[in-house]
Amino acid sequence: MKRIRSNMEQIRCLSSIILMLILNSCIMIDKNETITNEVWETVKAHNIAWSVSEDIDEQLKYVHDDILFVSPPFNKIRSGKDKYKESYKNWMLHAEVNHFKEIDPVIKIYNSGNSALVTYYIDMSFKYDDREASDWKGIDMMTLTKNNGKWFIISDMYAEEIKID
Q1: How many C-beta neighbours within 10 Å does residue 79 have?
Q2: pTM to 2 decimals?
Q3: Helices 2-51 and 81-94, packing angle to 10 deg
């Protein structure tokens, strides 16, 4: 009888441990999902600001002061929020975006939920001065960091799809 009681206590103890592990992993999944959503919403808000609203001030709310980036015309690495602003102001002076869509985002969370790497494909059409780009394809990769509860883009690199026949 003592042996049965001892086995039952062990089973109860193991069951409690297993239940705690399951609940803890569910909490971690929910936390990671929340962080992933926050990161993706930051990226989308940034993209809407430049591609739809053409609102540079709104766009810069999501950009870290020390951003490192490659942006149109894709010819050199640049650094700093002022240069980022200058690059996008130039874009907005010449370009009119007709369509912009992010496709198949991949978001990786690092540094205990304080850093993220985001990549996604771009499907876009736009007019740049007198030239029409009706089927522009590319990829974007961004790194984000969380400071004082807010996500900021600290690196941004576009790569245009190159078609080889």
Answers
A1: 12
A2: 0.77
A3: 50
